[in-house]
Amino acid sequence: VPLAGLAASLPSLLEASQRAIFERARKRLDERSVDVASLDELIAAFAERPVFATAPMCNTDECETAVKAAVHALTVRVLRADRPANGAPCIACGKPAEFYALLARSY
């Protein structure tokens, strides 16, 4: 872009750049998001590659400790308000879960 036309072109260049960054991040999130229903599935998912795992959890300290012990450096990132557990079994204790949790490793 010639310097003389830069000011007029800048908004569209910025919009295209932001759209490309967002689309790349969305694609990466989609590729790395997995649902797991057991501790074995959780361990297997993280053994393959870095992922964001969604799993039913009953939100007790004991279950969080068990899940963190299963995968090195795992953390509960958020309890998902957009996805009710509807009594799915907690991956740690098997009791009806209250929430789905988003789990990821901290690096």
Brief write-up:
This protein is of the alpha+beta class.
Percentage of residues in helical conformation: 40-55%
Taking the sheet with the most strands, its summary is: 4 strands, mixed
Secondary-structure content class: alpha+beta
The overall pLDDT, averaged over residues, is: 94
- Counting DSSP E segments of at least 2 residues, the number of strands comes to 4
Order of strands in the sheet with most strands: 1-2-4-3
Helix and strand run: HEHEHEE
Q: What proportion of the residues form beta strands (DSSP E)? A: 25-35%
Q: Can you walk through the features of this model?
A:
The protein has 107 residues and is an alpha+beta fold. 44% of the residues lie in helices and 25% in strands. The longest helix has 27 residues, at 6-32. It is elongated. The protein starts with 5 loop residues before the first helix and ends with a strand. The relative contact order is 0.18. The mean pLDDT is 94.
Key features of this structure:
3 helices, 4 strands, elongated, 107 residues, alpha+beta
List the helices and strands and how they pair.
Blueprint: H1 6-32, E1 33-35, H2 39-48, E2 52-57, H3 61-70, E3 74-84, E4 99-105
Parallel strand pairs: 1-2
Antiparallel strand pairs: 2-4, 3-4
